[in-house]
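Quarterly update from the structural biology core.
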Amino acid sequence: MTKREPAGTAGRNTGLRLLGHLFSTLACAGMLASCGGGGGGGTTDTLPRVQPASASQIVDTEYGKIVSGYLEAYSAEGVSTTTVKEFVKSSGWKIVGYVEAARMFQIDTGETNFASLAAARDKAIASGHFGTDVYYVTLVGENTNQSIDALKDTATYWNYDAASIKSAWALLSGSPLSLVPVQVAVADQGFTTTTAADDLVLNNVFSGQSEAACKDGCSNHGYHVAGIIGASANEKGIVGIPNVLTRNVINGAGGGDSSSLGDGISSLVMEGPRVLNMSIGNSETPNGKSEVVSDDTNRKILSYAESSAKNFATLLKNLIASNANQGRQTDILIVQASGNAGASSYNGAPIPSERNGFATSANPMDAWTRQNIHEKAIIVGAYDKNKKVATYTQLPVGEQGKANFILAPGDAIYSTTRSGLRQMSGTSMATPHVSGVAALVWTVNPGLSANQVRNIILNNSDEISHQGAKYRALNAEKAVRAALETLEAHRHDHDTDTHANGRHPGCLPG
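Predicted structure, tokenized:
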């Protein structure tokens, strides 16, 4: 794809490249090695890219908010695309989108009521072509608690001190290390081709949402999250957490429904990131509200949490297998928001983080999920400038949930948007703080595994007490110190000829 840079940016340290995905054949020309084909055999040259759902396609059913008539199905290993195409055609359905690396088919059944769609799902499962990996296409929730506010006090960036980010910068500012840029992927709703503020230079921006459909508010969420990680160290506005010291690469893809999100995550993972930032969650929870949840709503929340966890695990498993076959990155740290429905309750108990879906479940479904998601995931809640847990934060309820949970600054955070610096609040804003610190840790020691980076961040943290319980709180300086100690421990144990920057992973120069 052709790179584009806004006027006046050539030659300066932008600190951020944002690569997204236009969910159409345009993306096939550059970002992906191929578009269609493979997938277990058969021809796929007539299969289209996944198309994001429009607002008019979203319907509220007894299951929850879904795309009317659509299914999302992953072909079983060894099942050819030709076989799937023949089955879909014989059923009177239509394949409207396909993601080769994930073996994911977006299918329009044409059914207009939920009972008929449920029967179509049962038929797809019974065919044996997809195993049990057939899902409704659901709406994806954002974890932002309030609407954006204009910048009120440019001197108030409390989050940098609260999480000891400035101290981490100071610790590394005189370091002899050759810091290595780290690739971070931002899976979020709302990237468009519009350039954001001068503080956030966007190159190769493609999205599943048109400017007319997205408008200003929709796109700001993704830009705000990306800015916390990757805003330029250019003396304008804010500075992304890793970018004072080294230029990092950020890929971004938008998507407001599960199929387009899956397509976006596929393109991101194929780029080989070390970190996958997911400021997304359960669209059935009362986001940022204080409500007593009904039995019906609670059932929808539970269904979404379970289904999205299984869907995400299948998607990631297929993508990692594809990356392994292509020699791309397979060890990825997942950083996800805990959700913003903590002030709401069901049967007298707050809605916990384990209900936010995707990677938040505390109950691994199998050994692969435990090893590749739960042991490589950090779930992030928000605290405010007084270091108090934000009232909307969904907190874990059990020891398994607490094992990968941490709090980070998330309330009244300033970052980039399409129209300048703005303030937003939510666990969505807390999450990229952790992703940014993970990138810092990896810039220090690129030889660390995702599990090691996860443990460094979790085990070298502060503590916040809340309602009789204690929770970890992000401390960038402690995490960076711990990363430096991993280098020192191996200083005299290895050669210096097995890494691209002239040293073995885990070794200091000299």
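Residues 1-44, 146-155, 202-213, 495-510 have pLDDT under 50 and may be disordered.
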